[in-house]
Amino acid sequence: MAFGQGANEAFAEVAPYRDGAVYVSYYSGSSEWERHPCGDEVVMSLDGTTTVVLLRDAREERFFLAEQKLIVIPVDVWHRFEGSDRLKVMTITPQPTEHGLEMPVV
Predict the structure, then answer these.
(1) Considering only CA atoms, which of 76, 101, 86 is closest in space to residue 25?
(2) Cα within 13 Å of Cα(95), Cβ side
(3) 63: closest CA among 55, 75, 53?
(4) What is the top-level taxon of the source organism (predicted)?
(5) At residue 106, does pLDDT exceed 90?
(6) Is pLDDT of 82 > 70?
(7) CA 104, CA 106: separation in Å to the nearest integer?
(8) Of 31, 40, 79, 87, which is least surrounded by CB within 10 A?
(9) Where are the domains of the chain?
(10) Mean pLDDT of 95-101
């Protein structure tokens, strides 16, 4: 399943946390762009792999995320996931979250 197609079914809120929540999800495919203007997001692969794309200074930076690895996405940085393969991921996600299908202009 790709993001955007049944994405609500792919994500489950595990617990509230500060101004956001802890989520667990399972999916394959790529996501839309998103950012969190009020805090850092922690993303950990529990199983499967993905590439996390950060948009900084109008350049895409790619980080391969393997099983049992994590990345901290800095506050207000646009990011997305691409090439996720049967990814089970846990996130600690602050709110609000902004979304966009097109690459943001930074």
Answers:
(1) 86
(2) 9
(3) 53
(4) Bacteria
(5) no
(6) yes
(7) 6
(8) 40
(9) 7-96
(10) 93
